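QA checklist item 7 of 12: single-chain prediction sanity check.
[x] sequence parsed
[x] length recorded as 268
[x] structure emitted
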Amino acid sequence: MENKDVAFGRLVQIMDELREKCPWDRKQTIASLRHLTIEETYELGDAILNEDWKGIKEELGDLMLHLVFYAKIGAEQNQFTLDEVINGVCEKLISRHPHIYGDVRNDGTLVQVEDEEDVKRNWELLKMREGKTSVLGGVPKSLPALIKALRMQEKAKKVGFEWEDKAGVWKKVVEEMNELLEAEASGDTNHIEEEFGDLLFSLINYARFLNIDPETALEKTNNKFRTRFMKMEEIALSRSRSLAEMSLDEMDAVWNEVKLMMAGKAGS
């Protein structure tokens, strides 16, 4: 097995060489890399969703390259070094895991934990003692709205701001659904938008109580719709038709045909 230090040192050396000798790599800044890093992160997300281990390995490498790239630029700008980045996260992990590193104390007392939820709760409390002013402060504003809602709910839960049970959450979903219908009847677009957002937020809350990741669930539905719709197009073409030429009833019939076809493949 290859030594981790050797492998990582090789990546750092290649980055140094590229930054010195490659016109494209020399030109890059933290701003120009930002959208590329986001794209790589989404590619990793796709590979994870598909349980594509070969793809995961490749995308992890791409992301690691980006991290080394940012550290290289930081060093050039006299902001920080790669060693400082790595040591910084090491110190953070040690300070936030006092239940593992017994010599680390929290207000003079070792933090005792019983389960995963205790660890999460302590993590947030320790972050607040490090100078954070809000438990929501660590949620990036640029996150997609659905993921941002989930992360805010999770963080609020860690300090005890949480529904008592699943029934209460579902009652809230129904309440928001009725408020959306009332808003729709009013014809006030802004109010409709607000109530629709409230309903989505409540559904994300309910997903948490079902132990379901709403982002993953929605993406799986997106993929299912894509597969079925493209199969519809394929069937229509095989019959010398296009979907645009079909009536809604005809398309619905093909859709049901595709559903039965896909269900049969899933059961085979």
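[x] summary fact logged: The radius of gyration is 25 Å.
[ ] second reviewer sign-off
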